[in-house]
Structure formats: C-alpha cells, structure tokens
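Hi support team,

I submitted a single chain yesterday and got back a structure, but I'm not sure I'm reading the token output correctly. Could someone confirm the output below corresponds to the sequence I sent? I've pasted both exactly as they appear in my results page.

Thanks,
R.
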Amino acid sequence: MTKPRHRLRKIKLDEISVVDLGADPNATIQIFKRGGADMPGDLDALTEQMQKAAESLADNNQKLAAETALRKAAETRAANAEAALATAQASIAKSEAEADPFSAILKSADPVVAAAFKKLQAENEASAKMIAKMDEDRAIAKMASEITADMPNLPVKAEAFAPILKRAAGALPAEDFAELHRVLKAASSNLAKVLTAGGFGSSVIMKGSAETALDVKAGEIQKRDSISFAKAYTQAVAENPGLYTDYLAEQKGRAQ
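Hi R., thanks for writing in. Yes, this is the structure output for that exact sequence:
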C-alpha cells in the first residue's frame, strides 16, 4: 500500500533550520527554486550546460598551464642570461686585473692613495720614455760609429745615415740586414780602391781625409770609453788638434 503524501504549496518560509534528529523520521522534504527564463527547463539541458562549462574550464586550465610553462621557460632563460653576463663580467674583471693589476687595486683604494699611485705611475712612464730615448740615441750613435769605421767612403754623413740604417735593422730580418751591411761595406771598400787607382785620396766624395780620420778616431774612442759619439768626437778633436786643423782647411777649400 502506497504511503500517503502530503504536499504543501504556496508557503512562504522565513527560516529553514537543520537538526540532527527530526520529529518525523518518515518525512521527506524537497525544496526547489526555479530561476529566470535562461534557466534550462530539464535535466538534460542542465547537464549539457554543465558539461560545456567543465570543458571550457578544462580548456582554460590547459591554456593557463601552457602559459605558465612558457613563463617559467622565459624566467629560466633570463636567469641563464644573467648568470652568463655575471660570468663574463667576472672574466673581464679578472683579465683587466691580470693585465693591469695597479688599476684593479686603485679602484678599491683610498682616493688619496690612488692619486699618489697614479702620480708615481705617470713619473715611471715618463722615466721609461726617457730611458728608451737614451737607448735609441746610443743605438744610433753606435750605428754612426760603425758606418764611420766600416763604410768611410760611402757618400753619406754618418750621423744622418745612421738613423736610416737603424730603422732598416729593425724592419729587416737579421740575415737580410747582415747582407745589406756587407754590401754597403763592400761598396765603400771598392770605392776607396777606385779613388786610389785614379790618383785620388780615399773618402773625397763627401768627406775630406781629415774628417774621415776624425770620425774613425771618434768611433774608436766611443768603443773604448763607452760614451756617446758626440762626446767621443769632441775627445778625438782634443786628442788630435792637427787633424782638426786639416779638417777646417778642407771645409774652407770646399766653401771656395
């Protein structure tokens, strides 16, 4: 026998309370609230709508996951780029410190100390340039004495030709310069033979015999006393006043 059911309609409820044990254990209460016109009219339509909402949510979650993966990949690339940049900067700083340790030290030093170091560095550089110039002058003087001693009959002034020959020595391989030196020496020797055979004294083309003799003696004094060619020439004149008198006579004869 079917139990009788009683339906209450058109009731306005102010409150619904839920209790752990109702007064009528056989009573069943169902409450429905219908929405507006957009609310589906049946369960199938509601189920379809919920399924579409679930699919849309899944699609959005998938897109969000893809965007999250892309963002993490971009963050990883940025972190790697920053690490590579830091490594490069450290390597550059290390190279600069190894190449110029003073600069690396001065960057972190007290300004007063740094200024003192920079001043000292400038003075050292100036001294190095001065020493290099002195070495250059000594090398040219040595070359001039070698020209005077080995090639006295060449139509050149030793002091003017020495820088040219020194530049050639620096630019040419050693064996090439040695060959050039040999050829010039041989040319000087052959020229002396030609002049002697023709009844002329040697070294008459650009220099008189007295001038050549003074150059030779100056070269000998330079090697002996380890002094500059200019000082050696002055010493040669002082030690050989007769040669210097002959030299002045030769110069006077050329002028006439």
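A quick pointer for reading it: The first helix runs from residue 43 to 99. Let us know if anything else looks off.

Best,
Support desk
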